[in-house]
Task: structure prediction
Amino acid sequence: FNELGCEVLAKDTSSIVMAKGLLLKSSFKEFEQIGKVCIKDVNLFLKIIKNYSAEVEIEKKENKLLLSSGNKVTTLGLSKEDYIQSKLDKEPPLTYSGEIVLDSEVLKGASKHMDIVGSENLIFSIKDKKLNIVTGMDDKIEEVIDVESGDVKIAKFGVLIKDIIKNLEGNIKLHLKENYPLKIIEDNEYMRVVSIIAPLIVEDKEKK
Result:
């Protein structure tokens, strides 16, 4: 919690997914710079936040984070800063030739398709201003979306992409490149969240 607002940097234990977010100070009714807060489980923290339907007060007390609203108080144990910092890296310097603006509901639909066909992969490709999103192999669901530009033969991602997709809202920006991390940007007047997902490397024989 700093002069900009609430900045978050998180990475899963396998280093496949990294998320970086900023919740602007203006989105809080009252705001105080309480410094760094090292949360062990970001997904648990998000579930707890979503469990509240009214205003939530967040307070740091020693090695505890208290979230209170009305008669309900949730306590989260915090980790030592040096332990968390050793497991985090800065956002990697990635370059892309362009971006695709997309309704997040498209990706949420693709995530549901993964469940329907029992697939652990989500595959993107772009050709002739068409974005193809494919789930499954023999049993598969394919969706085609018109886009402004782009040329990506194949970009394949594993099941952990579902953890990112489920938290998306509204329009998002996709940055795609073959055998390269996928970057998803979600921003509005109150926040900006950047998620980076490592690819599953596709061998030449898998490419069409």
